[in-house]
Specification:
Layout (H helix, E strand, L loop, with lengths): L2 E5 L5 E3 L5 E3 L4 H13 L3 E6 L14 H4 L2 H19 L2 E2 L10 E4 L4 H4 L5 H12 L3 E4 L23 E2 L4 H7 L9 H8 L2 E2 L9 E4 L2 E4 L5 H11 L3
Parallel strand pairs: 1-4, 1-6, 4-5, 6-7, 8-9
Antiparallel strand pairs: 2-3, 10-11
Helix pairs in contact: 1-8
Length: 233
């Protein structure tokens, strides 16, 4: 059994290009499928959020048309209900000791754009985890959290690293569209990351050393499986 830290956004809205507030949070499928896959693989999972605030599920992700039908949507709701006690009392990021864990997993939803991307403790955790060679696994909009990893010298801890992230094509075609305040893929490229992309809305995972990243919600299970396969024991 390995200890896995699952960092979840605590944001419930994202400020859009036009200044409006767009309700958001974590994407249900991403958290549920990653958690289920890692739990079934026998690992212990600890939730953490900025400030220890209970995270908000993006209600759009529970709509049948987004979840893949009413049966799948109900399954996601039921799983989140089982997790409710854990999600109601997550560990504050400020209290996280990175070396107590074997992997850091970061599901998406637009929430990470609103808080994790600029959270100092998020950056502290990522830099320490990366320096120690711990597995780091963000997917969909989760890689926005990597933007927080600014070194004391002003550099980007993941510059030159290969990764997958929700693409501009997916954002414009099925995300927040033309009103998107900024594109995660572009922001990571601007920092020096090497962003790779597969077909839109198909699972696509990139592994670069200890960094395992996925492009979209469809990548959730494959990212978690790769994490499980890469953990010792």
């Amino acid at each position: 059994m390995n200890n896995i830290l699952m960092i979840v956004s605590a944001a419930d809205s994202l400020t859009m290009k036009d200044g409006s507030k767009h309700p958001t949070g974590f994407w249900a499928e991403e958290l549920v499928e990653a958690h289920r896959t890692l739990l079934e693989a026998g690992h212990r999972i600890t939730f953490a959020t900025p400030g220890g605030k209970a995270p908000t599920v993006d209600q759009v992700s529970l709509a049948p048309e987004q979840a893949g039908g009413e049966e799948k949507a109900e399954s996601l709701r039921a799983y989140l209900e089982e997790l409710r006690p854990e999600l109601a009392a997550p560990l504050p990021l400020a209290d996280v000791v990175p070396l107590e864990y074997d992997a850091v997993v970061i599901p998406g939803g637009h929430g990470p754009m609103a808080d994790l991307a600029t959270d100092w403790d998020m950056g502290r955790i990522l830099i320490a985890a990366n320096d120690a060679g711990l597995l780091i696994a963000p997917f969909c909009h989760g890689p926005a959290a990597l933007l927080s990893a600014e070194t004391t010298e002003g550099g980007f801890a993941f510059s030159g690293r290969r990764m997958a992230v929700f693409t501009n094509e997916e954002e414009l075609g099925g995300g927040t569209g033309d009103n998107t305040p900024w594109f995660v893929a572009d922001a990571l490229r601007d920092k020096g990351a090497i962003v790779e992309a597969g077909p839109a809305w198909e699972s696509f995972v990139v592994t670069d050393g200890n960094l395992i990243s996925g492009q979209n919600p469809q990548s959730s299970v494959d990212v978690a499986r790769q994490v499980a396969a890469s953990l010792p024991g």
